Amino acid sequence: MKVIVCGAGQVGFNIAHYLADEDNDVTVIDQRADLIRKINDTLDVQVVLGFASHPSVLEQAGAGDADMIIAVTAADEVNMVACQVAHSLFNVPTKIARVRSQSYLQPMWSNLFNREHLPIDVIISPEIEVARAITRRLEVPGAIDVIPLANDKVRLIAVRCTAQCPLIKTPLRQLTVLFPDLAIVIIGIVRDGKAIVPTGDDQMQEGDEAYFVVDTKHTDRARAAFGREDTEARRIIVFGGGNIGLFLAQHLETAHPGTSIKVIENNRERAEFVAKALNRTVVLNGDVLDPQILEEASVAAAEAVVAVTNDDETNILAGLLAKRYGCRRTMALINKTTYNALVGPLGIDVVISPRAITVSNILQHVRRGRIHAVHSLHEGFGELIEADALETSSLVGKPLKEVKLPAGVLLGAVIHDGQVISPRGSTVVQAGDRVVLFAAAEAVKKVEKMFSVRLEYF
Fold this sequence. Notes:
The chain is an alpha/beta fold. The protein is 30% helix and 26% strand. Helix 1 (10-21) crosses helix 13 (354-366), helix 5 crosses helix 8 (243-255) and helix 5 packs across helix 13 (354-366).
């Protein structure tokens, strides 16, 4: 597949990295010579220096025979115009654009992005997606990641194993004996920053991050099995009143009317704007690193603090301060991956990566075959894939113990006639079933083929 990526920032770099690793023909456009030089030095892609919306630059990038354009520059308008030019002049079939400004995304203007006006097939709004991801983690106390799948019939949940976790030092194959009625499959373990695709003989250790797929109805039982019986936060403080902080507070006001919410924003003008946009949230104007402001916000009584300012270091320090003051749980928005390994040991409970969330959103539109959703896990360790089982698939029609799945692939759940089945050796996947599986990075292409309609079938 031939893909043009407009924008060589963090999101553009990672999208290009993923696609190039899978042997796609990728060209990256950016106007900044330093970013283009970095991509040229580190990735196996073509590069073009110039404005992504200029016809001559798109032509140079090979738009004439491109299958897809992914516009993720820092400017909404450049992303939209690049898609328009790609459509009108080069007839590029699939156009994806990142649009941050909510002015463009109001429901009343929903006709703007159709083929007659601005022909964009998929709009990605990172701030809204990040706010939703934070809300999901607040709704499953103790989880460091929560991803709903198959209309939320199934969830991927990640938890950190503490010394109190009853499952540590137990071979994974024994879990079905210990919890016969619990529909759960552990699909990944992160230990000392390194990700492992587990086998039945592997054991979890204290400090591990365990990623498991579970029937949504069994979420509380699964948390209890991991020793995570935290209660849902009712007193929440949001550090930062930018777009993410505002969307998060708005969502919590609507979805959780019994929750007490406070927002701390340093810029006075922005704080006043946020206060007017919210109904029952208390907005304080001040520095999140100021002890007086933290006391005024009653951080000691907060059950969760979510630090989403536009500065990674401020988010980390403010989260650690809140923990020191007595806050039960802290989440920090972190863009730089170099900090990820540090913040857990320091005391930050949950790291939120806007880049990983945006990359996952884009990947599900890149994948081929009958694939409904794709989520990138732990910095490229692998992908969680939700797909329909086709009649031609090697998965269908025989017990799973007779199916040879590619190395690095684990089946997490099967949804048959609306019922969630935790896969066992005797489970038979039928055509039309929805399946949730994990594929390590090197196995993704093989999984994609399993869910593609073969031409010879017709």
